[in-house]
Design goal:
The chain is of the alpha/beta class and about 425 residues long. It has helices spanning about 15-30, 50-55, 65-70, 130-135, 140-160, 165-170, 180-200, 225-235, 280-285, 335-350, 390-410, and strands at about 5-10, 35-40, 45, 65, 75-80, 80-85, 90-95, 110, 115, 120-125, 170-175, 210, 240, 245-255, 255-260, 265-270, 270-275, 280, 295-300, 305, 310-315, 320, 365-370, 375-380, 385-390. Helix content is about 30%, strand content about 25%.
């Protein structure tokens, strides 16, 4: 009896790029039992990373169980585990399932015919002395919960501290990085200060929020007018903005932290959150893939890894270039989603021996939250125009974008019923 030959497609990562890829792949191959799809992630949920700042301040639901997307998808196998090795030359990946209470699981090898690398990114501390040891980061669900718990703890401690200078250290919060994540976190936390001050009977004028940015302006993806309006709104919240300032290190002294900067004196604090950049796991570089700035994988116009046409890289992992220039496509959720869907389409074409479609990034806009009920940004409109906004309308558009992402993923279900 002849054994059926299967084609195995492995997707590493269930973030924006990976999940959009696997949901579309499942639909496209739903009638082809010879194709087996494997999704690998170290979590059982899809994280809405663009909303991590919300969870750092309040109980906001920012995860969706993967089972919701994978239910009734008989051609998808989910593998829970940490990717520890990518063997590009012999086409396999290795997973570490970690330890259980009763046994130590051995690494598992998964063979692939086609591979999609969508492992996301890590925080880049740029080897700044003391930063990785002492600063919080905001990349995972656990990070946001640590920040939220720590913030309340600082107010609780300050409530019983009689020394004013020490109390100010507990109530001074420093954020490094004036990009989207840093600004959204700073404004969300600043809005929470009044409620925490009332809860712990503190003077609401005492808490401080300090934002440090190396460039000469924050939110570089916005235009000058929108940046000015954002700065105005943030200063109205009491946020101190220091542009043109480099964080040069962090040190610990008698239990307190000192944020070193140039120019400017050290800032004594008990809370520093670093949002100043990303890097890609060394795991990908060790695989033999050619990498560029930040460790991103060099890909061609179809998002295939150089020298490995059966391997695609998407999202933060891909060093995709803008057509017609030497500028890299930014690391943003909107591009990861586009790349995920395109890669699924191209994998279907590869299996069917048809020509691939080139990647052409489409900029849909940029929206930045300035607290719970305020946002600034722009959205692409027909005929090359843009809709620019700031205020409550912006916050509604921001939420609509997030919900649209989930809607599109849900729509890829084979038997989509139109509701959750």
């Amino acid at each position: 009896m002849n054994e059926t030959k299967h084609t195995d497609i492995v997707i590493l990562g269930a973030g924006y790029g990976g999940l959009s890829c696997v949901t579309r792949l499942s639909r496209k191959f739903r009638r082809d039992s010879s194709v087996r799809i494997h999704l690998v992630d170290r979590h059982t949920y899809h994280l809405l990373e663009t909303r991590l700042h919300e969870r750092a301040v309040r109980e906001s639901e920012i995860t969706v169980p993967l089972s919701r997307f994978l239910a009734k998808r008989n051609n998808v196998t989910f593998h829970l585990g940490e990717v520890t090795h990518i063997g590009l030359d012999d086409r396999h990946v290795e997973l570490d399932f970690g330890k259980t209470q009763t046994s130590t699981a051995q690494p598992r090898r998964i063979r692939y015919d086609y591979l999609v690398i969508a492992l996301g990114s890590k925080t880049n501390f740029y080897q700044i002395p003391g930063l990785e040891e002492h600063a919080f980061q905001l990349k995972e669900l656990e990070d946001s919960e640590r920040i939220r718990d720590h913030t309340e703890q600082m107010f609780a401690i300050a409530a019983s501290e009689t020394n004013r200078n020490r109390r100010k250290e507990f109530l001074r919060f420093v954020i490094g990085g004036g990009g989207l994540t840093g600004v959204e976190l700073a404004t969300e936390l600043a809005e929470r200060f009044d409620a925490l001050s009332e809860q712990y009977h503190l003077d609401p004028s005492e808490p401080e929020m300090v934002l440090i940015e190396l460039a000469d302006r924050i939110l570089s993806s916005l235009d000058g007018k929108q940046i000015a309006r954002s700065v105005e709104a943030m200063q109205a919240m009491g946020i101190q903005i220091h542009t043109g300032t480099r964080v040069t290190g962090m040190s610990e002294e008698d239990g307190r932290l000192l944020v070193l900067r140039n120019p400017g004196d050290p800032i004594p604090t008990r809370t520093m959150v670093w949002t100043g950049g990303i890097r890609i796991s060394d795991l990908i570089r060790r695989s033999g893939a050619e990498t560029g700035p930040q460790g991103r994988v060099v890909v061609n116009e179809f998002l295939q890894v150089k020298h490995y046409p059966e391997v695609f890289a998407i999202g933060d992992n891909a060093l995709a270039m803008q057509p017609g220039n030497d500028q890299a496509v930014p690391t943003a959720a909107q591009f990861a989603l586009q790349q995920g869907y395109l890669t699924a389409d191209n994998l279907r074409r590869l299996v069917g021996d048809r020509p691939l479609r080139r990647y052409k990034p489409k900029v849909l806009g940029e929206v930045v939250s300035l607290g719970k009920h305020l946002a600034v940004g722009w959205a692409a409109m027909p005929v090359g125009t843009q809709l620019r906004f700031i205020g409550f309308l912006g916050s509604l558009i921001k939420r609509a974008i997030s919900e649209r992402h989930l809607f599109l993923l849900w729509k890829e279900r084979q038997n989509w019923s139109g509701h959750w």
